[in-house]
From TrEMBL:
One of its GO terms (molecular function) is undecaprenyldiphospho-muramoylpentapeptide beta-N-acetylglucosaminyltransferase activity. Keywords: Cell cycle, Cell division, Cell membrane, Cell shape, Cell wall biogenesis/degradation, Glycosyltransferase, Membrane, Peptidoglycan synthesis, Transferase. Residues 62-202 form the Glycosyltransferase family 28 N-terminal domain. This is Glycosyl transferase family 28 C-terminal domain-containing protein. The keyword Membrane applies. GO terms for biological process: carbohydrate metabolic process; cell division; cell wall organization; regulation of cell shape. Coiled coil: none annotated. Residues 258-412 form the Glycosyl transferase family 28 C-terminal domain. The keyword Cell division applies.
Length: 439
């Protein structure tokens, strides 16, 4: 962590080696002890005067292209929240897929939402499912162009998802500024291509810069934006009381150990199965253990039919009040999505990460590797995952309170809580500069 602290105040990122795209299969070490020292989250201090610029755009209009998973949606919501705080007159529109997670999550966050047809790139690239990709891309582009012409945004912010590519291209055609926020260490294909047209690419890690063409001229290292709700200090006792109102009073909840299991917004079958064969025995053997188990929306009905009711177990398809969940938890078992990793650091929680092998470009394995280096996170590959391995790792970590405290401290030191502020400052600077030139 001394290395991370040393890099934090550098005005320019050090020159780092390029990280190649991952191979098609994961290695199977029996014990993962990963040390990655070159790819650290760094807070750039370039352009310190961004926040003090006096130029202002009246009636600023911003479009966010985001969707597919919570990992794309919530970074956009975090940036939108910060924009509203900084410039309350800003008009914001989200574009996403119909009947999707974003179609519910965005209106719940009180932002306007409109739909665009999706163009999905299936894996492998030469899959027969991609035969209609050109048609779907054109259709998505035409709809995106129409929506942008109607809203007439100053800037389009893409955080990823099925509609982000066509919306990004349409943004350049109507003359709007385009910025990308990449959450992962290595960008996906869509963001890589969009970066040719983008004005700014916001990245989390220094090592991501060399993964983009012209990275050093466009990339800004800011970290992943954090939702405002997660920045609030929620009392642990109050959070636990919300999840377990029938527990035996404040005293029982205070001495309890709470395990939070997150399979991602869409669920994680491997984690669910491993926990299914484990949870009840753990609850029987550990009277102080409480479990909050997010199964994922698609898996909830099946899990609910298989899981026995227990007063110290909460089974839920999705957690909307994540600030309460993190506040209540002592230890987190999760996939290794970029935003989840960011939230784990920001809330200072020890964690066990089980990266999904099915995510494009091997993002989650790379995220988990970095978390192991920065915060001492325990990593279990899906090939290694079974009930015995998961159970023994959970018990070992919960039993060592001093180690848990050390891991919590390391996570907090690695977190960047001001990413959304920095991103908004750069966005306003970009729009102000563009407006000034036009005048």
């Amino acid at each position: 962590m001394a290395a991370a602290a040393a890099f934090r105040h550098l005005s320019l990122p050090p020159k780092l080696p390029t990280f190649p795209l991952p191979t098609t299969s994961l290695t199977k070490p029996r014990t993962l002890k990963l040390k990655i020292t070159l790819c650290l989250t760094v807070k750039q201090s370039n352009d310190q005067g961004l926040a003090t610029q006096n130029a202002a755009v009246d009636n600023l209009r911003v479009v966010f292209a985001a969707g597919g998973t919570a990992g794309h949606i919530y970074p956009a919501v975090a940036i939108a929240d910060e924009l509203q705080l900084t410039k309350p007159s800003t008009k914001i529109l989200f574009l996403g897929a119909p009947n999707s997670m974003e179609s519910t999550a965005v209106p719940s966050a009180c932002y306007d939402f409109d739909t665009v047809p999706t163009a999905i790139l299936h894996r492998p690239i030469f899959s027969p499912q991609n035969l209609l990709l050109p048609y779907n891309l054109i259709r998505s582009f035409v709809h995106s162009y129409s929506k942008l012409r109607e809203f007439d945004p100053h800037i389009v912010i893409s955080t990823g998802g099925y509609v982000s590519f066509s919306t990004g291209l349409a943004a350049k055609l109507i003359g709007a500024k385009l910025v990308i926020q990449e959450q992962n260490r290595v960008p996906g294909i869509a963001n890589w291509v969009l970066s040719f047209f983008a004005d700014i690419v916001f990245v989390v890690f220094n090592c991501t810069i060399d993964s983009f063409p012209s990275g050093r001229t466009k990339c800004v290292v800011c970290g992943n934006p954090l939702r405002l709700s997660l920045k609030k200090q929620v009392p642990r006792a109050a959070a636990r009381g919300r999840f377990f109102p029938k527990a035996g009073g404040v005293e029982e909840l205070e001495k309890a150990k709470v395990l939070l299991v997150l399979g991602g917004s869409l669920g994680a079958n491997a984690i669910n199965i491993a926990l299914l064969n484990l949870y009840y025995q753990m609850l029987l053997e550990n009277e102080d253990l409480f479990i909050i188990w997010q199964t994922g929306v698609e898996a909830h009905n099946e899990m609910e039919s298989l899981v026995k009711n227990h007063r110290r177990l909460l089974l839920t398809p999705f957690l909307h009040s994540m600030e309460l969940a993190y506040a209540a938890a002592d230890l987190i078992v999760s996939r290794a999505g970029a935003m989840t990793c960011n939230e784990i650091l920001a809330t200072g929680k020890p964690s066990i990460l089980i990266p999904s092998p099915n995510v494009a470009e091997g993002h989650q394995f790379k995220n988990a590797s970095l978390m192991a280096d920065l915060a001492g996170t325990r990593v279990i590959t899906e090939d290694e995952l079974d009930s015995t391995t998961l159970g023994s790792t959970i018990e070992e970590m919960l039993a060592d309170e001093s180690k848990m405290a050390e891991l919590s401290e390391r996570a907090l030191k690695a977190a960047n809580l001001n990413a959304s502020v920095e991103i908004v400052q750069h966005v306003l600077s970009l729009v102000n500069l563009s407006t000034t030139r036009e005048k």
